[in-house]
Amino acid sequence: MNKVIYKRGLDISYEKILTDYLKTGQETYLYQITQFGKELMRLEIGPESIIETHLNVIKKINRDKKVYLKKDIDASFTILMEGIMSYGMAYKEYLNSRTEGYLAEIRELNIKLSRKLTEMTVLYNTIKITGSSLDLKEVLSSVFINTIKSLKAEDGSLMLIDPEDKVLAIKEAYGLEEDIIKKTRIKLGEGIAGLVAQKGEPLIISGRLNSPQIKRKGKYEGINSICAPLKTKKGGVIGIINLNRKVDAEPFTEDDLKLLSTIAHEAATAIERVSLYQELHKSYLNTINTIAKIVETRDPYTSGHQKRVAKLACAIAEEMSLPQDKTEGLYAAGILHDIGKMNVPAEILSKPGRLSEIELSLIKTHPQAGSDIIKEMEFPWAVSLIVLQHHERIDGSGYPQGLKGDEILLEARIIGVADVVEAMASHRPYRPALGIDKALEEISQNRGILYDPEVVDACLKLFKEKGFKFE
Predict the structure, then answer these.
(1) Which residues on neighbouring strands pair with residue 240, listed in sequence order?
(2) What's phi and psi for 158, nearest 5 deg?
(3) Whether domain 3-130 has CATH 3.30.420.10
(4) Per-residue model confidence as pLDDT tens digits over 333-365
(5) 269 or 467, which is more confident?
(6) What is the dotted CATH code of the domain comprising 152-274?
């Protein structure tokens, strides 16, 4: 096997080994992954090329959105690294057995190998970080701290371009005074950061800055810095990452700059993805709130009910440590859970006296009606099903389908508890408010009968221990 064959056939052969392992979890394939890494090292294929191939294959395998266990994906990377490192250690022992004339070369090779392995680990961690969160602050903070530690920087900053003022503002910083972080606003083309943002090209400065485009070069004497632009897939610059070391510290190298540029690219891609998600999420919320207002105009006695239910449901979800996407889906379902009441005559909704059997049966149609309306909306959560089931009860006494226990979505069980608590605590046309104590007594007495025990426990803890209140 030579380098040409490696270039053509590596992806195909390695993809098969890795796919077989992720599908079966059998340790025999881990052995093959280790041997694969060793063989490529023997053929003088650099570790950075091996790990790049590994990451490309992972992305290709996941292109169809198949679900593989995270621990298996991590294990495959770890075992590949072990293969590379074990070959490196064996190679080191071999060279050390040679004459004294080779010792300097050995040390240099070991340093290079160590650096490359560090770079691969940094890139792998960066890719994991940027692909695992939709929270912009979390992404920026995690990527930046990982970069500072990996490149052994004394201080630095991650800056984004303000789209309105067209200036760079610090979003994440390390080793800088709070006053500097708050006040720093750099115009495009101004200083090192501004020049990198304007030109879209990375810079490395060691000792003295020679760029003719930078004014007042004296302030940059004795500097040890690297700066890379955050460039999107379309080539647009949205910010920069700037790192500094002490003047007498080891200078940054071209390899450091290359690594920083790669990290910056991954960070920019993540920022773009998160920003797009946030814009879409904002649009969803605006649509949801508009619909809720329409529902409330037909049932003025429940004005604010849907928002309060949504708020309590989200608080319960957080208390139960549910994932962020489930909490977001709960907010949407809470806001829309009574949308089906648009199909119920307004005079029934606001009737002060006792409802007749016919009127009650009409009221009970609202979960199905609401679900049918929401089916036409393309939500990224199971909102339609949550709305359909929010009046189901654990013992099967609910409606419209008479579902029991785990047949009911957890989110629907949460909305069910939040809905009962808010409704009992608030005024209705047919009765005055019963108060929060009565509402909590209701869910306590029917814990495990009508209402999910874990949901009830979380709700009680919010009110009795954490001071939750309806606004």
Answers:
(1) 159, 229
(2) -115, 120
(3) no
(4) 999 898 888 888 877 877 777 888 888 888 899
(5) 467
(6) 3.30.450.40
